[in-house]
Amino acid sequence: METQVILVDDNDNQIGIEEKIRAHQDGGKLHRAFSVFVFNDKGETMMQKRAPTKHSARNIWSNTCCSHPYPNEATITAARRRLKEEMGFDCDLKEAFHFTYKADVGQGLTEHEYDHVFFGFYGKDPKPDPREVSDWKWVGLRDLKKEIAKDPKKFSPWVVMSINRVIEAYEEMQ
Fold it and tell me: Which residues are catalytic?
């Protein structure tokens, strides 16, 4: 069965359903997504290197996990489901903020997402699925911002575009 995504308007109101790849073609249709940033007790965030088999943004560093909710699935439920599927663990998540972005992610695909950003806390090593993740690491947010400034092409566009808001939201939580 085809994976479907939820098409939304600029206010995240559902306006339709589309097959995932089609939603990312022809300039990208705005759809609901989520990005999860998990932190440890040192204030570092868990980053993953996306597997070479991913449909977009292959072989680059990204946040702990990200994806799209299924139709009729709550976004936070989807975020926890994908965290377990991609990284092999679950933890409580809280929405930190949301933003909309549009970016060419290669292979003729465009991400045009209303992205809900969730924060969670976890202190152990993950057990990532190698079909989803080729590597992972803990990194401090300020160090991550420096790495992004030095070579943004090593990172997913949604991480590049959101890093300042991630730092701000994390510092507000402390």
Answer: 66, 113
